[in-house]
Amino acid sequence: MKFSTIMVVFALAFAFASAGCRYDKAGKGAGSAGAGEGEGMDISSSSQEGSLSDMSEGKFENLYTRCTDVNFEPVYFGFDSTVVPQGELGKIDAVAQHLTEKTDRVVVVEGHCDDRGSNEYNMSLGENRAIIIRNYLVQNGISADRIQTRSYGEEKPAAVGSDESAWSRNRRGEFAIFQK
């Protein structure tokens, strides 16, 4: 083989190898919010990114009282996705409406995953799901300092099992409301 042919083959192999893996741990590519699949709404673009739990003075759980007078439905996600399906947006709207009416309340958005994937990947995916929900709340007028995010990855399943029925119930974002 000629040297130029070997170099072309090597360059192509390197290009394919460096293209990346199937999972987008940063949550910015395929399968993430705004992926253009028409299945959900792009709510990933916010001027404030990252976990607010690091920026706040303390965890809401340690500062405030958990509200027991209200309970919101979980927001469900597709497999390996941070896209909020159109049918789930109303659940976040209900939380935004509640927080608008009750200005003395704050929320912790909890991100969860099914048990497929590594613990590290699921913790990252859970955090990205919580951040996507937080961004939507901020875009709908809720002050960012009233929202914190947590990721539980696969550690707090809503359903036990190794089938799609259980997995789909575990891919979720939940809301914990606290009163100041």
Characterise the protein shown here.
With 180 residues, the protein is α+β, with helices and mostly antiparallel strands. The chain has a single domain, classed as 60s Ribosomal Protein L30, Chain: A, CATH 3.30.1330. The protein has 5 helices and 7 strands. The strands form 2 sheets. Strands 2, 3, 5, 6 and 7 form a 5-stranded mixed beta sheet that branches. Helix 4 links the parallel strand 5 and strand 6.
Radius of gyration: 19 Å
Average pLDDT figure: 80
By CATH, the topology is: 60s Ribosomal Protein L30, Chain: A
Output the structural class. Answer: alpha+beta
**β-strand amount:** 15-25%
Oligomerization status of the protein chains: single chain
The best one-word shape is globular
* Number of DSSP-assigned strands: 7
Q: Alpha-carbon distance between the termini? A: 73 Å
Q: Class, according to the CATH hierarchy?
A: Alpha Beta
As a percent range, the share of helical residues equals: 25-40%
Q: Can you summarize the main beta sheet?
A: 5 strands, mixed
Query: Number of DSSP helices?
Result: 5
Supply the number of structural domains: 1
Low-confidence spans: 3-38, 45-56
Element order: H for helix, E for strand: HEHEEEHEHEHE
Reported CATH architecture? 2-Layer Sandwich
Task: Briefly say what this structure is.
The chain is an alpha+beta fold. The chain contains 5 helices and 7 strands, in the order αβαβββαβαβαβ.
Chain-wise SSE layout:
Layout: H1 3-17, E1 40-41, H2 60-63, E2 65-66, E3 75-76, E4 84-85, H3 89-101, E5 105-112, H4 119-139, E6 147-153, H5 164-170, E7 172-179
Parallel strand pairs: 5-6
Antiparallel strand pairs: 1-4, 2-7, 3-7, 5-7
